[in-house]
Specification:
This protein is an alpha/beta fold and about 300 residues long. About 25% of the residues lie in helices and about 20% in strands. It is built from 9 helices and 15 strands. The strands form 3 sheets. Strands 8-7-6-5-4-2-15 form a 7-stranded mixed β-sheet. It has a 6-stranded mixed β-sheet with strand order 9-10-11-12-13-14. A two-stranded antiparallel sheet has the order 1-3. The longest helix has 14 residues.
Length: about 300
């Protein structure tokens, strides 16, 4: 994979703070729930409504990333992926530059018309920059954004008739997926996507500003299922080797089957996670397509 270096990342708008993804101690469900009892009620309601999708139907195409997985596709600081196989197709984030997003989608045979929903993880330009031009090609039914995100980001979508869902508490996104709910961070509040599959939960993060360990713990707590895959930005680019290894070991201790740290995760994090996870570490980057064949495992197990 071809990648940009740390200096280039900073120049290209990567907002990096030491320890931002190191599992900083934050009150669970601090945003949107006044107490733990409120969250328990939300979680129980979601578990009654969500349905696991067949893992064989899962397809995740990474259409924007600063790591390149295959030739002929442009790498740039940012993130976006198309998630297919559920009852609705989701475009998760929209990268930084609209022309790169659209060119990469074309090169991968991904059409704007495939997306029914846009899920915006947080309000940084490398995750929302391609939104307006994408909407010139496709008016989606719904746009999910964090409650703290400014209305200007999604104004065009609203004008074109999309329903804007401002997420506070965890909510159902499709019949097979939920938002984590907006989680607090001193960098930028953020929400992540949890996909319920027959083989476990797939967690997709934008930058994991609230902490990748905290996000995974929320997925487990919300859905009470094992996590099959965690992929996306882990925000470890400026963390120390010791801190990154501790996070990798903590995730493995939570029985996370597969990991794919990309975007703002950093080369050191990728090296350490690969060392810790071995064959269960997945190479990522723009151009990568993830299917059930990449995630061999037994059927998911319920957890308490």
């Amino acid at each position: 994979m071809k990648k940009i270096n740390r200096r280039e990342a900073l120049q290209k708008g990567g907002r990096l703070l030491m320890g931002a993804a190191a599992g900083v101690a934050l009150t669970p469900f601090a945003t949107g729930c006044s107490n733990e009892d409120a969250l328990v009620a939300v979680a129980e309601n979601l578990r009654q409504r969500i349905e696991p999708m067949e893992i064989e139907k899962l397809k995740i195409s990474i259409v924007y990333d600063n790591y390149r997985h295959r030739k002929g596709i442009k790498a740039d600081w940012g993130f976006s992926c198309l998630v297919e196989g559920m009852d609705r197709t989701i475009l998760f984030d929209t990268g930084r530059y609209d022309d790169i997003l659209m060119d990469n989608m074309s090169a991968m045979g991904v059409k704007a018309g495939q997306a029914d929903i846009i899920f915006l993880s947080h309000e940084h330009p490398d995750h929302v920059g391609g939104l307006h031009t994408f909407l010139d090609h496709r008016t989606v039914a719904k746009v999910f954004k964090g409650r703290s995100m400014s209305s200007g980001v999604t104004r065009k979508a609203a004008e074109k008739g999309s329903e804007i869902v401002a997420v506070d508490n965890p909510v159902l996104v499709t019949r097979n997926s939920v938002s984590s709910g907006e989680m607090k961070s001193f960098v930028k509040n953020e929400h992540s996507l949890f996909i319920d599959t027959t083989n476990g939960v797939v967690v997709i993060t934008g930058c994991a500003h609230p902490g990748i360990v905290d996000i995974v713990q929320r997925a487990r707590k919300l859905l009470r299922k094992e996590v099959l895959l965690v992929m996306g930005g882990f925000h470890l680019l400026m963390d120390s080797e010791g801190s990154i290894r501790d996070i990798a070991e903590r995730l493995k201790g939570l029985d996370i089957r597969y990991v794919m740290p990309i975007h703002c995760s950093g080369s050191l994090a990728q090296k350490i996670f690969k060392d810790v996870y071995g064959d269960h570490y997945l190479e990522g980057g723009v151009g990568r397509i993830i299917t059930a064949a990449d995630l061999p495992t037994e059927k998911q197990q319920l957890i308490s």
